[in-house]
Amino acid sequence: MAPFLLTVLQVLLALTFWIGIGSGSSNRYNAGDHVPLFVNKVGPLHNPSETYQYYDLPFCRPELVIEKQETLGEVLNGDRLMSSLYELKFREDKTHFVLCRKRLTSSDVASFRDTIAQDYYFQMYYDDLPLWGFVGKVEGDYFGQGEKHTKYYIFSHLKFHALYNADEVIEINSFSDPSYLVDISENTEIDVQFSYSVSWNLTSERSETRMNKYSQASLHPISQKIHLFSFLNSITIVVLLIGLLSLLFMRHLKNELRSSSTGDEEEKKDVGWKLVQSDVFRCPQNVSLLCAFLGTGTQLLILIIALFALAFTGFLYPYNRGMLLTSLVIMYTLTSVVAGHTSASFHSQFEGDKQKRSVRLAGILYPVPFFIIVSVLNTVAITYGATAALPFGTIVIIILIFTLLNIPFLMLGGVLGNRFGLLEFQPPTAVKRNPREIPLQNWYRRKLYQVFLGGFVPFIAVVLEWHQLYASLWGFKIYTSPGIMLYTFAVLIFLSTSVGIILTYIQLSGEDHEWWWRSILCGGFSAVFMYGYGVLFYLRSDMTGFLQLSFYLGYTALFCYALFLVLGTISFLASLMFIRHIYRSVKLE
C-alpha cells in the first residue's frame, strides 16, 4: 500500500504543477519594457458560451501568431490567448499609432456586419488583467427613399488607459473611440486603417488589491435589495419550519413516546410509526445503488465545502483564468477517496461482502452522465468552431486523470471503508422475515405529493438567490460575496434536512416503512425545481442559438444533478438519524 500511495502522490504533484496555479499579482517592469498584450476571444454579448478565437474575425494579425501556453483550467474555460500587433510598453504613451492598414473584402465586411448585428465583444489580457471592447455598433434605423435602412459601423481606433504604481501595472481599460467609425453597411470592398492610443497614469493603489475591482463591479451590478428580500424570504420559511419541528418533537412525538411507556395498548394502536418498527430497518431495495448514491453525494458535498474555503481565502476570484475549473478538477480527484470510503462503509452495514459493487457504481454515477453530456456538447462546439471545443490533447489528459488518479483514489477509499469503516448496523428492533403490508395511504402521504412538497419548500426559500446565481453563471452579473452564497447553501441544507425529517415521520405514521429511497427523492427534488427555473430563466433571457441552448441546458443539468445527489444524501442521513433516535427511544421505554 505504501509504494502505491507514494506513486499516486508523485503523479498528483506532477499534475498539479502541470495544471498550473494562476496568480492575481503583477510582474515588475522598467520604463519602456515590452509587456505583451494577448488577444483572447470574441463572441455575442448575450451568449456567454458562444465564443470564437479572436482571429476568426479579419482583425489585424501578425505574420506569425504565437499561442500562449495555457493551463488545463484555461483550456476548459475556452480561453485561447494569442499574440497581437499591439505594443503597449510600460509607461510609454502613444497617440494614434497605426496598427495596420487592411483591405476588407466583401466577405470580410459581411463577417464584421454579422458580428456587429449580434453585439460581438472582444476580450484581451494585459499582464493577466482582462479588458473588453465592442467590435462595432449599429445606428438607429432611418427611412430613405421610402425604404428602411440600418447602418453598421466598425470601430477602427482603440484607446488604452493604464494605471501603474512604481514598477507594476495596476489597472488597464480599453475604449472604442466613437469618433473613428468605418461604415460597412454596403457589401463592397473597403480600405480600413486600424489604430490605437495608450495613456499611462500614476495611482496610489497597490498591486495586492488590483483584482478587487473585478469582485466589486460588473456590467450589471447586483442589487442589494434582492439579497435583502431573499434573506427575509428564507428566514420566514426557516422560522416556520423550526416552529413545526418544535411542535413535532416537543409535543406530538413526546406524547407518542410517553404513551408507549405507559403500556396503554389502545394508545399504541393510534400511532402508526410504532407498528412498523420491525420493518423500518429492513434492507432497502438496490442497496448497492443506494450506497453509491450516498458516496457520490458525500463526495460532492465535501467538494462544495472545499470550494467555499478557497473562495473565503481569496484563492478564487472573478476573471482568474481557469482557476475555478482547475480547482474543480483537483478537488474532485482528491475527494474520490471520500466516495469510495462512504460507499463501502454504508454497504458493509447491510451486506458485508459486496462492497465492490457499490464502489464501482460510485465511480460511474456522476462521471458517466458527465462524460456523455460533455461529449455531445463538445461535438456541437466543434461543429460551430467555438473555443469551447476541447482539443484532442486536453481530452486525452482528462481521460488519463480519471484513469490514473480518480479510479485509484476511489479504490483506495473503498479499501479503507471496508477495513476501517462503520461497524455493522444493529437495528434497535428486530426485523421480521416477511415485510408488513402497507395500507392504502391518504393523499398527503403518497409519494408524488411528498416528493413535490419536499422539493418545493427548500426551493421557494432560495429562489431569489438562485436567480442571481444563474445571472452570474450565464450572464455578466458577478457573484462577489461567498458569504451570501454560503448562507443560501446553509439554508438549503437546513430546509432539506427539516422537510426530509417531517415527511419521513408522516410516511411512517401511515405505516409505510419503505422510507429509504423516498427520503432521497424528497431531499433531491429541489434540484428538479432549480432546473425547471433554469429553463424559465433561459426563456426570459436574450440568449439565442442552438450552441448556447445546448450548452445552457447541458451544463445546467449537470449542475442540478450534482445538487440532487448532495441534497438527497443530506435528507437521507437526517432521516436515518431521526429514525434511529425515535426507535431507540421506544426500545429504551
UniProtKB/TrEMBL annotation:
Keyword Flavoprotein: no
A biological-process GO annotation: protein localization to membrane
Membrane topology: Multi-pass membrane protein
Keyword Transmembrane helix carried by entry: yes
Source superkingdom: Eukaryota
InterPro entries cross-referenced by the UniProt entry: EMP70 (IPR004240)
Residue intervals passing through the bilayer: 228-250, 287-317, 323-344, 364-386, 392-416, 448-464, 484-508, 520-539, 551-579
Gene Ontology CC terms: endosome membrane; Golgi membrane
Keywords: Endosome, Golgi apparatus, Membrane, Signal, Transmembrane, Transmembrane helix
Cellular localisation: Endosome membrane; Golgi apparatus membrane
Signal sequence bounds: 1-24
UniProt record similarity statement: Belongs to the nonaspanin (TM9SF) (TC 9.A.2) family.
Record's comment describing the protein's domains: The C-terminal KXD/E motif functions as a Golgi retention signal, certainly through the binding to the COP1 coatomer.
Protein name as it appears in the record: Transmembrane 9 superfamily member
